[in-house]
Design brief:
The protein has 331 residues and is an alpha/beta fold. It has three domains: 2-80 and 290-294, Rossmann fold (3-Layer(aba) Sandwich); 87-101 and 182-262, D-amino Acid Aminotransferase, Chain A, domain 1; 104-180, ATP-grasp fold, A domain (Dna Ligase, domain 1). The chain has helices at residues 13-24, 60-71, 80-85, 88-98, 131-138, 161-170, 222-239, 269-272, 274-294, 306-318, 323-330; strands at 2-7, 30-34, 48-53, 75-77, 105-108, 142-146, 156-158, 176-180, 186-193, 197-202, 243-251, 254-259. It has a four-stranded parallel sheet with strand order 2-1-3-4, with helices on both faces. The chain has a four-stranded antiparallel sheet with strand order 5-8-6-7, sandwiched between helices. Strands 10-9-11-12 form a four-stranded antiparallel sheet.
């Protein structure tokens, strides 16, 4: 029997529906349940072939548990090693390399010095920064947001330099990004599961939270939906995320990836609506069952994005000659 577990926090509607949907599939060798954790011993496997992670971003103990489970063969969704290394500024940089449009963005050192550092810790940092050039590049209005982390925590809309310096002072030790505002004609929030199942949802982030999926502008064109769909797949293949949402803002007919590092995205029925909820439950269950069927005990069952896998392939190709052959050639 292969078990699929789901690890979650306060949310209830999605985890409960997910477990029910997997078990209703009626597969004799696969069942789903909430993860239960007791003793966590180094290098020892869990009882789960697959774990859907919805909470480890907030609970470091869970992240350590999932890494231990992964190294012992569990297919953890999303990959806890990549999730620990990932952050929004790098994702933007990666998007520029794979041809997905993103807003102009710079990263800023924290306003306050990190704990246990002094002025001498920053010998390599120019001070003051070239603020005029930064502001000229980004323009106004602009958004400032943490380079790591999720949700709308510590996010500022800024209209001028005075706004910027006032807000920057409030950010303390957070490392922030400054990003141009995309004045959009259309906006989309997209689920992407298993790096192949995509649901493109029209979205209005300026509405109250419970009305953001209510859009009165009419349906988007098939051409635009296809373009957004393809960008979503490009991003998730590069990042290696099996459960993610991507938000895209369309300006002048060009979709810009605004927010695409959401490995535990909102899937509550009360916020996404019944139709979207049904889709994500169905496809999350389908993805988890597929991963359980593909699971190889004791092996690496994680997903790695093309950024990592291509780097490994290039390294292996460059070191394909055995030491003995290399030594013989050098004589």
């Amino acid at each position: 029997m292969k078990k699929i577990g789901i690890l979650f926090g306060m949310e209830r509607s999605f985890p409960e529906a997910f477990v029910e949907r997997v078990n209703k599939a009626g597969l004799k060798d696969i069942k789903a349940e909430p993860v239960m954790i007791d003793k966590v011993q180094q290098g020892e496997p869990t009882d789960y072939a697959v774990i859907i992670d919805r909470i480890s971003q907030d609970v470091p103990f869970y992240r350590a548990y999932l890494k231990n489970a992964a190294i012992s063969g569990t297919a953890v969704i999303n990959n806890p090693f990549w999730w620990s290394a990932d952050e929004k500024f790098f994702n933007n940089a990666l998007a520029t390399k794979i041809g997905v449009p993103v807003p102009k963005t710079v990263i800023l050192p924290s306003h306050d010095k990190p704990t246990d550092t002094t002025d001498s810790s920053f010998s390599n940092l120019k001070f003051p920064l070239s603020w005029e050039k930064i502001f000229e590049y980004i323009g106004w209005p602009a958004y400032m947001k943490p380079h790591a982390g999720g949700g709308w925590k510590s996010v500022y809309k800024l209209n001028n330099m005075d706004d910027f310096f006032r807000a920057y002072k409030e950010t303390g030790q957070l490392v922030m990004m400054l990003q141009e505002e995309i004045i959009f004609e259309e906006y989309f929030r997209c689920y992407c599961l298993g790096r192949k199942y995509v649901r493109v949802m029209q979205y209005e982030p300026r509405n109250p939270h419970h009305l953001r999926y209510v859009v009165n502008s009419g349906p988007a064109s098939e051409k635009m939906v296809k373009k957004v769909h393809d960008y979503v797949l490009q991003l998730n293949h590069a990042l290696g995320y099996d459960f993610n949402t991507v938000e895209m803002a369309v300006r002048g007919g060009v979709p810009y990836a605004i927010d695409f590092c959401n490995p535990a995205p909102d899937a509550d029925v009360n916020s996404v609506g019944q139709e979207n909820f049904e889709w994500v439950v169905e496809h999350a269950a389908k993805m988890a069952i597929e991963r359980a069927q593909q699971h190889k005990p004791g092996k690496d069952n994680l997903t790695w994005g093309t950024f990592v896998s291509d780097s490994v392939a290039a390294f292996l190709a460059g070191n394909s000659k055995s030491p003995s052959k290399a030594k013989t050639k050098s004589k």
